[in-house]
Specification:
The protein has 11 helices and 14 strands. It has 387 residues and is α+β, with helices and mostly antiparallel strands.
Length: 387
Amino acid sequence: MARTDGGPGKGKPVGASSGPTEKSQKDILNALPLAMLVVDEADGIGFANAAAESLFGLGEDSLCRMTIADLFGGTDNAITPLLSRIRAGSGVVVARELSLTGHLAGMLADVQAAHIADRAGAVLLVFEERRLPGVLQRRSNLEGAARTVFGLSGMLAHEIKNPLSGIRGAAQLLEKQSSGSGKDMAILIREEVDRIHRLVDQLENFTDVRPFTRRPVNIHTILSHVRDVACSGFAKHIRIVEHYDPSLPPVFGERDRLVQIFLNLVKNAAEAVPEKGGEIHLVTAYRHGLRMPMAEGGIVDLPVEVTVADNGPGINADLKEHIFEPFVTDREGGSGLGLAMVAKLVAELGGIVELDAGMEKQVAGGGGARFTLLFAAATGAEGEDNA
């Protein structure tokens, strides 16, 4: 094996006619899927590859004007001790599931640190986000809960609807033939039968397993339609604020399912916000990095992020881990099926929905609830039809 003189980018193999240029080395580093930073002896950022730009949401020029303290929110961060260990003589340090701060606040990541030969005090940092395992487990749980409701709803629809029609007919006859308290009781029976009928109708939605075709869909068109429906009805007196990324690619999804997903979320938000000063925020953004294995095999990127946030009282802390399960609700009179339906439809589209735990990140002021959804983008020929 040929010997090299100098550190990365400083020399070339002895006896070789030529070595990689600095530009080709950067091209190689930019092609890597993991975020990489080169930190100099003064803790300044000397280089950031393309994956690091995506992870931190900053360009290389901006990153290279920052220090580790700037990037991670002060000197009391999880990265500085790794730098100290490397400079004290450790060859390579690997830290699993570090809780990061600053520009990556709330993220868990595996971080590898290594000394760069012939560059005094320089350290290479490699970041790998650890969000995926937890997301996979949660999605698996949601899909399992939805499958359980498939069977339950099918049984209820078949066994309950027929006798309900008979009970309602009898109540209508009693209502016509009675007066006073007897008529009131007949009306009460009819109204309660209607309420049960509506509940069974909701349950029937879970049994809809008809195949559907995914195609490019403009998510902003979906959200605008949902806003118009909400503003003309259940959210007539609520302020709906839109923050959209105009460069967002189309979602690879199905229109009716997307409309139902966001109508459910906006309706829940509308019921949670205060009568005066209620706000619902709809936000879209492009996020790099999260990739999900598909049931049919292969890996898919989920870069299209949509957030639905409100300034209501938020979700009861005891329910946050179970909020997408059927019949779980903290709202009086709620059926607990709206968010379960959202989870089912998002899973069918191959996406992810999460209730953010960190309410300090709330888009709309106050405590509130903040739901984040991630979808696959239509690419190549898929996206051309949605120009």
